[in-house]
Amino acid sequence: MLAASALGVVTALMAPVRAGAAPAPAAPTAATPLAANGQLSVCGRQLCNASGQAIALNGMSTHGTQWYAQCVTGGSLDALAQDWRSDVLRVSTYVQEGGYETDPAGFTARAQKFIDAAHARGMYAVIDWHMLTPGDPNANLARAKTFFTAMAKKYKNHPGVLYEIANEPSGVSWSAIKSYAEQIIPVIRAEDPDAVVLVGTRAWSSFGVSEGSNESEVVNNPVNASNIMYTFHFYAASHREEYLNTLDRASDRLPVFVTEFGTQNYAGEGANDFTMSQRYLDLMKRKKISWTNWNYSDDHRSGAVFKTGTCNGSTWAGTGVLKEAGVWIRDRIRQ
Asked: Nearest to residue 128, comparing CAs of 146, 144, 113?
C-alpha cells in the first residue's frame, strides 16, 4: 500500500550527492515522491495523491530539449532528485524553434528518454507541449494529437506523468484554447484515462491578465473535462501585485498548477527579485499549489540555474555550480 506521507518525506532522498558522482538510480521506493504518492488526481481544487491527500509537487523545468539536452543527464538528474530533493521534472518539448516539427519521432523519443530517467529516480514528469509561437495552440492541433497519442500509449500504465497540453497560448481567445483542450484531452483519455491534464490559460498562461482579462473567463466557461488543472506562469521581477492577486483568486475557484516561473523578468533575464518571488512561494505553499521553476540548464540568462559551461562537465551537486537563482531555488525545493 502506498504511503500517504507528504512529499520529500524520507531520508533516502535527503542524502546529498557527492560532486561529480553519478550513482545508478535505485528503483523507486517509499523514499521517493513517486512511490510515496502514486497515481495523482484532482480532488476539488487540489492535486491529491493515491490516498486522497492534498499534496504539492516542487521541482524544475528543463529548457528546450533542442538546445539543452546536454543538461539532462544521469548525473544532473541524480543531483536534482537526491541533492535538490525535487519531486518533479517538467520536460519541455518545443514545437517550433527547431523543435518537434523538425523531427517528430526524434523529439518524442528524446522526451521519453528524459521522462523515463525522471521516473527511475522517483520523480514525477510533466510532459510539456511547449507551444509558444504561434500563440494559438490550434495551429499545431494535428501535431499535438500525434505527440500525445504516442505519449499516452507509452505511459498509460504509469502513475508518474502529467500532460501539459499547451505551454503559453497568446493572442487567442479563451474559447479557442478551450476548444483545443476539448479536442486534445479525449486523445489522451483514450489511452490514459487516469492521468492529470494541465491546460494552458490565455495570455502566456496568466489567466488572461497579460492581455487585459482575468480568471473569470475560465471560471465562467471551464473546460468540459474532469481531472484537469489550469496553468499559471509568472516572472517575479515583471509580474507584480495584479498577477499575484490573480493567482490567489483563481486558486480559490479552480485547480491551478504553476508549471513555469522565474525570479527575473518575463524573459528570464536581468536581476533576481527574490522578495517578490518569496511572496509567490509563500502563497503557493499555503494553498498547496504545485510548481516547477524555469529552468534546469546553463543558458547564459540569469534564469538558468547552472553557471555557463556546467553542462559540459560532470559536477552537478552542491551550490558551487549554480548561479544566484539556482542557489535560491535549490534551497526552496530542499525545504
From this structure: 144
